[in-house]
Amino acid sequence: MSGRRERMNQLVARKIGTEILKGERPPGSGFRGEIEEADAWGVSRTVYREAMRSLIAKGLIESRPRRGTHVRDPHHWNLLDLDILSWILSDEPDPAFSGEIFELRAIIEPAAAAMAAQRRSDAHLARMEDALNQMERAGLATDEGRLADRAFHAAIFDASGNNFFIALSAPVEAAVGMTTRFKQENQAEPRDSLPDHQAVFAAIAKQDADAASRTMAKLVTLAWDDMRLAVGPRD
Amino acid sequence: MSGRRERMNQLVARKIGTEILKGERPPGSGFRGEIEEADAWGVSRTVYREAMRSLIAKGLIESRPRRGTHVRDPHHWNLLDLDILSWILSDEPDPAFSGEIFELRAIIEPAAAAMAAQRRSDAHLARMEDALNQMERAGLATDEGRLADRAFHAAIFDASGNNFFIALSAPVEAAVGMTTRFKQENQAEPRDSLPDHQAVFAAIAKQDADAASRTMAKLVTLAWDDMRLAVGPRD
DNA sequence: GAAACCTCATTTGTATGAGTATATAGGCAC
DNA sequence: GTGCCTATATACTCATACAAATGAGGTTTC
Lengths: 235, 235
Known about the structure:
The structure is a homodimer.
Chain A: H1 8-21, H2 34-41, H3 45-57, E1 61-64, E2 68-71, H4 82-88, H5 95-119, H6 122-138, H7 143-160, H8 163-186, H9 194-205, H10 209-231
Antiparallel strand pairs in A: 1-2
Helix pairs in contact in A: 1-3, 1-4, 2-3, 5-7, 5-8, 5-9, 5-10, 6-7, 6-9, 7-8, 9-10
Chain B binds a DNA duplex through residues 4-5, 7-9, 33-35, 43-47, 49-50, 63-69.
């Protein structure tokens, strides 16, 4: 996948971060001293400290002289960080988790689409159209097609003009992609979502904010339904 | 304010991070080598590297052997990180920025309130009530009252039961607090927002999701109006 | 002449050992 | 008990050395 080999400090950060997110290191629990801990991981204190520095920056832990290093309350975790998301979804996709991400998406994306309808430039529109064409050409069964799908949604977020929505774009779409990737593999004949996308595009092109919101809400809802169907009926 | 003295690595991270966010170090621009840069900041290479490790974790920069260290595209910046928010708002509150944060809030909070109405426990409700009483007793002119205000909104986010909304709570409320703090100081007779809060509370208590959404939307809109009025009419 | 390969220099990454700063706990005087 | 002091554990900072990665440019090979 990623061509460059992972560095030691990243590896340790990922390992410890994953332990925290999986609950193996509960909030409030402490770490041993740096020398001891670094030794246990088979790395130098330099590497161990840089790894911890990353986790501190993501809100997972905090450390103070004399008190030691402790896992912070989940309330402080930067859940929308891309690394943290990938650490959470490292093994199997949790159904509860994907439900929550879709719930967020169902709120964010229609609003972003409405804003995009009002503020989009021609350049934004062109990006969306390119993405749609790419989706049609490649199909959603291919990596290329899914990439185009993400590009379409990213273009909408960008067109919203709101930097916070833009910042939300990457983690939300990434999480959705991660939780639905296996869906495409399992589902025999996935529903064709291209018409839904085209309806959103048309609304944004017409600068019809209301229609953009409605069509996007429908798109997300349908995707959500597909997801639930693929993951197996539970409720 | 914060009792503990800031460590060197945090200080350097804050300084450089602020330079990036203020545009003094544009995306794509590179840093000098570690030895040279650390020397310029008057710290050891260890401290400089740990500072950079924090900025990497927040998505502001990236570094690779031989290529050096560069500012990443704003698209990758973790804008909802509490540190980054405080760095952005370090000197004067930008009106465009506060407009965007209110725009996000106007989307997120009504949805959170609706979800809270459906899922809140009695404990959540008690927290909201306590916060309301505290607001009434202390008044929004005091730090204590504003703290209670934040607690009220935080309780709603928690009651939503969605971890992503909970994760959004802290940065959104913090940013709102930062941009509106000076409003309370400047505005001679700020509007009493307590009734708006009580209406939201009543709707959540009744488990009326629709009313919760509507009352919260109203609350945010009114706060937004106040904000625009205080910051001076622009449009 | 083009392509694969190799060498080298530059930059970040890792290791180690020493010393400093800071906050907690416990003792001591009052 | 209350306030102050001291000891100590822990993270923080420093300096130096070496290792690994990578991009550039030259070299061989066909």
